[in-house]
Amino acid sequence: MGGGARILEATPESIREAADILLAGEVVALPTETVYGLAAVIGDDGALRKIFRVKGRPSCDPLIVHVLDLSGLLGLAEVGGALLDRVRRLCDAFCPGPLTFVLRKKKAVSDIITAGKKTVAIRMPSHPIFREILRRTGPLAAPSANPFGYVSPTYAEHVRASMGEEISHILDGGPCEIGVESTILDLSGKRFTILRPGAITAEMIGEVLGERAKPLRPMVSTDPAAPGMLRQHYSPRTKLRLFRESAAEILLNFGENSEKNVAIIYLSQNHGPPFGEKKWAENIFWLSEAGDWNEVARNIFALLRRLDGMEFDLICCQVPEKIGVGAAINDRLSRAAAKF
Ligand code: AMP
Ligand code: MG
Which residues keep their CB under 5 angstroms from ion ligand 2? Predict the structure, then answer.
């Protein structure tokens, strides 16, 4: 699988090369601490359009802009008074890191990035390679480097496997440390809203701001506050079903005694095969030895991709409760299973 894209080992030379390619108006796939991104400089409309073309992403789904620091953010967004104080406190606590701010945009920010909205999404990635590139290029727009709707990439090889024909360069920064996309935070209201849960949780943000999040509503793409938050997303090609405690019911419905080949993913290691039957033993996978949710988040997309390449008829995956990082994992899995 995969096409002609070159995977460049990250060295000072390849980092310089990647930055030069970006500055010349091309797209390059780059590692971040969340997932791999497909980057373009924000001043080049042709390069920005290429992101949408390569991903097959609808133009109504806005991009996140990546900057080095708060001053980079303030160059792109209108932030003053009490809002600046809130942003500053959150930056002190969580940035650089996997937290995206949705703020009123400055005029100069391209409508291609914001999908015509008056707001822009901005974050400060912590990945040292991405930051080194940012120092050379200035702000970069970068959505996840996967075809629209498919499972996000957490290894350079994932990017090559699913869009290697469409792009020329992938910078390899090893596996992504966090593994799920950034938390998207809307600060436009009296109380903050989480538009997409991530590793920085509502509880963590609430503690810093001294207030509680507005409750999460189920997001759909028609919601003007959260364009692009589709109910169906991150999906493998293989049918995916979710369970809380036991996969037995899904398996019985699917035909437990048939010839169907079913993979079962548990959050932690200490689960035996369903029905105690040996024949399932080879089909059992787990995401974290001890059920550590940060580890689950780090591994989930890679395991879904791996199983998707193994010709299973069905993948059954255990979901965590929507608490802490579990909310982000639950969100991604629910969207991944929504189309089946
Ligand atoms: P990603 O695909 O990970 O780059 O995330 C981009 C997502 O950020 C989009 O699908 C939107 O849901 C969200 N987003 C980006 N810009 C905005 C904005 N101006 N307002 C609300 N959500 C946004
Ligand atoms: Mg994405």
Answer: 144
> From CA 110, how far away is CA 271, in angstroms rounded?
50
Q: What's residue 219's pLDDT?
A: 55
Class of the CATH domain delimited by 240-337: alpha beta
Instruction: In whole angstroms, give the CA distance from residue 340 to residue 338.
Output: 6
Mean pLDDT, range 189-199, rounded to an integer: 92
pLDDT of residue 200: 97
* Domain 6-209 CATH class label: alpha beta
CA distance 76 to 123: 11
Burial label for 71, CB within 10 Å (0-12, 13-18, 19+), is exposed
Q: How many CB atoms lie within 10 A of CB 45?
A: 14
Strand 37-41 to 28-30 pairing: antiparallel
Whether residue 154 has its Cβ less than 6 Å from ligand 1: no
- Structural domain boundaries in the chain: 6-209, 240-337
Q: Regarding beta strands 262-268 and 284-288, do their DSSP bridges make them parallel or antiparallel, or are they unpaired?
A: parallel
121 CA to middle of ligand 1, Å? Answer: 6
- CA R_g for the chain: 20
pLDDT exceeds cutoff 60 at 84 = yes
**Cβ atoms 238, 315 nearer than 8 A:** yes
In this structure, the strands spanning 183-186 and 240-243 are unpaired
Give the per-residue pLDDT at 222. 60
Does the CB atom of residue 64 touch ligand 1 within 6 A?
yes
Closest ligand 1 atom to 117 CA? 19
Q: Exposed, middle or buried, 94 (CB in 10 Å: 0-12/13-18/19+)? A: buried
- H/E element, 8: strand 6-9
